[in-house]
Amino acid sequence: MISINGLSKHFGKLEVLKDISLEVEKGKVIVVVGPSGSGKTTMLRCLNLLEIPTAGKIAIQDQTLDFSKKVGQKEINTFRKLTGMVFQNYNLFPHKTVLENVMEGPIVVKKQDKAAAKKKAEQLLSKVGLEDKLDFYPFQLSGGQQQRVGIARALAMEPEVMLFDEPTSALDPELVGEVLKVMKELAKEGMTMIIVTHEMKFAKEVADEVIFMDGGYIIEKGNPAAIFTAPKEQRTKQFLQLIQ
Ligand code: ADP
Fold this sequence. Notes:
Keywords: ATP-binding, Cell membrane, Membrane, Nucleotide-binding, Transport. It is a peripheral membrane protein. By secondary structure, this protein is an alpha/beta fold. It has helices at about 40-45, 75-80, 100-110, 115-125, 145-155, 175-190, 200-205, 225-230, 235-244; strands spanning about 1-10, 15-25, 30-35, 55-60, 65, 85, 160-165, 190-195, 210-215, 215-220. Helix 3 (about 100-110) crosses helix 4. It binds adenosine-5'-diphosphate (ADP).
């Protein structure tokens, strides 16, 4: 369903993604781990086209972008709709209510009519356990609740793939579970997901494949049991020793 081929990203002279290639089947959950600065966030941002790759190809379903050629804004906008992004710091609109946050994308980007967008937003907010918070503003919610709004907002765009960039790392420990629970449910429903996280227990339970990145490269990938109990690469071993 997703095919990344020879992807690279430079910031000026700094190459932060180097020849990344990856295939993800529909319905699979991929967890990306690796030290800070290894390029995990940049890889997700490239998939969502918040960053434009310097070279390589990304295909999602039947749409392909080839970054060795010039890619137009229209193609970017179309492609971006295939992915939904959940950010570390939620990135909610502070002056909009919970319901409005979730309705905004479908109305503005997908040109859905307001009643349909509202109905869908209510359904999604109920799915993430926030049916009683529709008229609250983000500042009136806990971090865990805000992140669940973030997930509902991404789902409202009906993406093919959900991308999570350290969705629980800004949360107090007691709020992490409620967000992971929603993510587990999505995985169970067959959503294709790529998740950057330091939650190793979650990765072991939910991931179909774990990818270890370092220095802009994918160093190693495999099923969680293989990566966590018998990593092949020295750098993976060192990293896991530090965090486990
Ligand atoms: P990770 O998510 O693994 O911590 P990042 O993808 O955030 O890694 O960062 C990879 C590298 O790219 C780091 O060296 C970081 O400083 C650099 N980087 C990320 N974003 C930018 C940017 N907008 N401009 C310049 N350098 C950046």
